[in-house]
What we know:
With 449 residues, the protein is mainly α. It has helices at residues 3-7, 10-50, 54-82, 84-101, 108-122, 125-134, 139-168, 178-200, 213-230, 238-243, 245-276, 288-292, 294-300, 302-322, 326-345, 349-365, 367-372, 374-377, 380-412, 416-435. It is globular, with a radius of gyration of 21 Å.
Amino acid sequence: MSTVEIAIDSRALYRKISWRLIPYIFFLYILAYLDRVNVGFAALDMKHDLHLSNTVYGTGAGIFFLGSAAFDLPSNLALTRFGPRIWIARIMISWGVIATGMAFVTGPHSFYLLRFLLGVGEAGFFPGMILYLTYWFPSQERARAIAKFMTATSLAGVVGGPLSSFLLKLEGRSGLHGWQWLFLSEGLPTVLMGISVLLFLKDKPDDAEWLSHDEKEWLDAELERDRNEGGAAARNHLADAFKLPLVWMLAGVFFVSQIGVYTVNLWMPLVLNSFVHPAVSTGAGASALAAGDASLIARYATFPYLAAALFTVLIGWSSDRSGDRRWHIAGCLVLSAVGFGWAGVAHSLLAALGAFTLAAMGWWSLMGPFWALPTRVLGGRAAAGGVAIITIVGGIGGFLGPWLTGRLRDLTHSFSAGLFVIGGLAILAAFLSLAMRERGSNAHSSLGQ
């Protein structure tokens, strides 16, 4: 054992890194997620003012993910070339400008265009952040780190609900609708934070002035040991990501998870509103009464996200502590299926809120153990490519979920069909996650028991 190894308190070092990195990138991701899903809070008023049908709304909400999926891989490869600091700043400034432009949507075509461009602008942010965490945390610490980072997506709902409620009440101020104020107020801060990334984000441990020389040496050695043990050191070419079966199996699970996550994000306010005003028209001309309740529904929607944030941290801690990944992932997917099934048969606002709480807890909490898997067995450009492949496939799910929910809503005049279909897919994904150990990943030790 080297003197560096003897001198370093690993727990204290990881706590130091966590406190330095996680709160900052956590806040960045909250902004990203708000700009991605705030259309769900704006939908009640926006659909009414612009006369958008459920199918149009679902298509526009989901088309974001097609833009993101198309550019995730080249964007993540660019991050490895230009470095996280420059590339993450570029992403944030681009999407902030486009998110602000959402305030000027006038109809279906401009809605589709700006949502697609928003996806293009944001492409690479999430996979880039997952890759970035691998530069600082070895795999045995990664599920907790990713879980803490990923709580931003659920807490964005906690923050987004009350914030959106307040902004929607600005209806008529300076001649703007409340939903226009929402897009303006949540888009501009992203541009400013993008500029801050150039000043504050460090590309890698060697660039961190707040780490001592011994800490940097010890961490570099620990990360290298982890890459060798997990196989990442031997799989560092882009082609390795395409050849590894584990990547495609994870992509299938992530595909289903994103169907569920963005159905919650983009349709939950409308599902909850259907219990407040069950007689509201399901077509383009939603009633003004329902539109006026947007701020109330936004407040209701905070509860599932808060529960999801707490459960995400708990599952990440449990997964790292036990070393298991696949059973944690499968359990979370089953919980999500139960939540969606319950939501499909719910007959009251309270029941629907409880159902979406279970669903959100399941969908969000699987992310910690999930993302610890590909970053354990892939390194370099292979890790960048593998994470991007998974998010690209997931992006298709992110489009399909909102679109399918809207389409089935228009066809059946009920949300139940879409919720049942997605719940069934969650069960299938749970079986797929359990099968990962038996099929050729060459990385069985990283999958848990």
